[in-house]
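I am writing to request your help with a piece of structural work I have in hand. Here, with my thanks, is the record as I have it:
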Amino acid sequence: MVNRFVLMVMISFSIAVGGVQAQANNTPIIAVSKGDIYTINPADGSIKQLTHHPSIAGGASPYSQRDLSISPDGQYLAYLQTPRVFAIAMKNNLVGNFGFPPSDIVLLNVATGEEKVIAEQQTNVKWSDSPRLWYRENLTWSPDSAQIAYYQYRGGSTYQVMIYDWLIEKTFTFVDSKQPLGEIAWLTEGISVGSVVYNTNSEIIAQHTLEKDMTLGHPLNYQGGEYAFVERYDISSSRGHVYLMDLMTGQYDMVEGYQSSISTFTPENSLVFIRDDNDTRPSYVIDPQTGVKFMPPKEAPYALDFTIAPDGQHFAYSLINTSVNISDLKGNDLTVDFKADAIIWGAKQYTVASETGDQYASATPTLVFYNTQLCGTLQPVGLVSGGQGRVIVGSEPNRIRVTPNDIAEVIGQIPEGAIFTVVSAQTVCTNKMRWVHVQYQNLDGWTAEGADGKAFLEPVQ
C-alpha cells in the first residue's frame, strides 16, 4: 500500500508545482499565538483566527516553527500539539524540566479551519507514564501534498517513521527500529532516513556508515544530486565551503558557499536566506538578481522565524513579542501588529549559495573524511577516470552492485582477468571497503577495489 502512494508522489510532482506557483501571492502566512492558529493576509495584514483551543501552558506545542509543516500546495498545515493531559501537568508545574514534550499531530485545513488528529497518544495514558508517551517530530510532506511522513519514538527502544495518507485517511509504518533514526527526506528513489535510503517497499537500497564524530545535517537537492550536509568535529562548514554526502553513493563532496535556503517551488527565481544553518535566523536575506540585502536587527526586538513565500519573491519574519513583518526587498514592506510565537509561509528547501546568493559552485569530490574506520587499510589501487581496470587474476569474480555497499543489490559480476571501464576513479568508502564506479559490458554500477588490505582490482596501463 505504501509503495503505491509513494509512487504517486513522484508522478504528481510537476502538477503540484504549477498549482502552487499560480496561487503564490494569495497564500496566507500561518501564525501561532498561545496555542491557536491564525492566518495573516500578506496583501493587507488582515488576521483570521482558525482555531479556538483551550488555554495551554507556556512551552506546550505548537510554539515554535519546528512544530509546523505547511503542505507544498498550501492547503494543509500539519502541526505538533502537546497532549492535553501533559499540558495540564506542565501548567501545574508537575513536569519540571521536561525538555521536548510528547506530542500528537493535527492536520488543519487552512481554508476551512477544520482539524483532524492523525497521530495521538494511547487511550488513558498518564502524563507520568513516560514509556507509553509518544514523542514526534520532523513532519515532512511528500512533493504532491498527498502524504506526510514523521518520526515518532517512545520508551527508549521504539523508533519509527510513519506515513499518513490523507486521501485515504490511513497511517502506515514505513520504518520500525530499535535504534534512533535520522532526518526524513523524500527522494526520487524512495525516502531517506538519516544516512539510510529505503525504496517504496521499505527495503534498504543504500546505507552509509558515519564515524562516531561525524554528524549528518539537513538533506538537500543540489544541482540535481540528492545530498545531506555533513560535518565532523574537526571539519566544519563555517569558512566559506560546505561538505555534502551523496545519499545514494555515500561519496563526500565539497562545495564553495554556505548552507542556505530558498523557495521549494520557485528555486530558480527565489530570494535566498544566506547561512540558514540554525533554528533562529539566517545571516541575511538577499535578492540574487539585484544584490539587495536585508540584515536582521542585532538588538532587541530580535527577528526570528524567517519564512519564504511560495513565489520566492517575498519573505516574512517575526519580531519577538512585537510584530510580523513582510518584505519583497523592493521597498514594499508591511508590518502587522501581532505577537506570534511562530510563523510559517511556504515550503523551503536547503541549498548551497555564495555570499551573493548564486548557486553555481560545483560539488567536488573530497577525501577529507576518509580514514581507516571507513576505508580500511587498503589504499586506492590507482584506477583513472575514463581508463580501464582489471580484476586481478587469481581473485574471485567481482560483484557489481547498484550502490557502493555490500548489502546493495547485485546486478552482475566481472570475471577474474576481465577488463572494465572506470566511470569515476573517485572511490567511495563504506564498511571498510573501497568502491569504484565502473562499466562492464552492458552493466553500470559499483564494484569493490578490495577489502581487509587486499586489492581485487588493478589498473590496465
Summary: DSSP finds three helices and 38 strands in the chain.
